[in-house]
Amino acid sequence: MNDVNTDAAALELDIRLARADFALEIALNLPARGITALCGPSGAGKTTLLRLIAGLESGAQGRIEFAGQCWQDSARAQFVPTHRRPIGYVFQEPRLFPHLTVQQNIDFARRRALDAAARQADSADVVQLLGIEHLLARRVHTLSGGEQSRAAIARALAGAPRLLLMDEPLAALDAARKAEILPWLERLCAHARVPILYVSHAHDEVARLADYVVLIEGGKLRAHGAAQDMLARLDLSTARGADAGVFIPAVFVEHDAQDCLSRFSFAGGELFVPLAAPPAKAQQRIRIAARDVSLALTRPEDSSIANRIACTVTELADTDSPAHLLVRLDAGGAPLLARITRRAARTLDVRPGQAVWAQIKAVTLLD
Predict the structure, then answer these.
(1) I need a labelling partner for 206 at 20 to 30 A (CA). Which of 3, 135, 196, 222 fits?
(2) Which tens digits make up the pLDDT trace of 48-73?
(3) In CATH, what number is assigned to the domain containing residue 226?
């Protein structure tokens, strides 16, 4: 994934929007690189904030500044309209022009680019990155949902934006189409040269793509920070659901072709991941869902579970289920989460500072 420099702010927000039934108030500086995920429950204000940044909402008070350029300052009656902001916007629905081919959609966006050099730029790199070369001559109505989404992203990038805004681009897709487009979206995020704001409430998407996470609840900023740390915080709603989990940065060590297993090293030890072939790159993200982690007081010796990590319990918290607790673990500095029953926690006398073994039943390679 992209390296994130959290000291350099690409986007500075101090914005307030009051409506009859909703109020948004956000003061925040966002990283200059990488993928920032805007998370929170439905109605929290994620899309509203994205639309304010894009200049698609009016009536807000405060200031928005991007890379030293003021886009809005209500105190000075300054407002840069959407078409003058160097952004690309990907909506929940693709919103492609149905009477044009994919290539014509892309060309339209390039012609409207603010920068003259961008208007002359070749879009071949974006087309190749998203794997849509074979779709360029086709009309929109002949494309699948996943293909339309990729074409919409290509169009957003064709204008050479300095900031890419993505509003739940996978929300309208079924599970099969989502699985189809996620690898392409990963490639985009890994190679993008512009900061990306990605709105999502899907835990797996955030773990897979985000470098930085902003949690919004009830129109207010609840918390923000590096994705690995945010997803492991037990005081946040992101950890309370059944899909809670963390990702661990890991390095590929070797591949066993006979057993189709790849071995990875990380701060807390080693992990084995079922793979038919070695990964394409050494640096990887491995996602571990809390529901796939069980605890033992001694090292399990007779077990079919290959991934067993020595950990220390650091914290316990309630979940969305009255029968379960969430346990945060420290694995050599890497955070893990385990979702266990209250009965198990009582039987094992799980408490902060306790040494335990984490048995990881399933892992997912994200990158």
Answers:
(1) 135
(2) 999 999 999 988 999 999 999 999 99
(3) 3.40.50.300
Single residue among 206, 239, 272 that ends a domain in this structure: 239
Task: Say whether pLDDT at 5 is over 50.
Answer: no
Residue 4 lies in a domain: no
Domain count within the chain:
2
pLDDT higher than 70, residue 3: no
Identify whether residues 42 and 176 lie together within a single domain: yes
Same domain (yes/no): 234, 288: no
Same domain (yes/no): 316, 212: no
Q: Is residue 1 part of a domain?
A: no
In a domain, 298, yes or no: yes
The residue length of the chain stands at: 367
The answer to whether 38 touches 69, Cβ cutoff 8 Å, is no
Residue 65 to residue 49: CA distance in whole angstroms: 14
Q: Do 109 and 158 touch, CB atoms closer than 8 A?
A: yes
Mean pLDDT of all residues in the chain?
A: 89
Q: Alpha-carbon distance 358 to 139, whole Å? A: 52
Domain that residue 322 falls in? 245-365
Residue 2 lies in a domain: no
The CA distances from residue 174 to 149, 169, 177, 294, 351, in Å, are 12, 12, 5, 31, 41
Q: What is the spatial distance between Cα 16 and Cα 45, in angstroms, rounded to a whole number?
A: 11
Domain check: are 220 and 275 in the same one?
Answer: no
Q: Is the pLDDT of residue 135 over 50?
A: yes
Are 318 and 220 members of one domain? no
The mean pLDDT value for 88-108 works out to 91
Q: What are 265-312's pLDDT values in tens digits?
A: 999 999 999 999 999 889 999 999 999 999 999 999 888 999 999 999
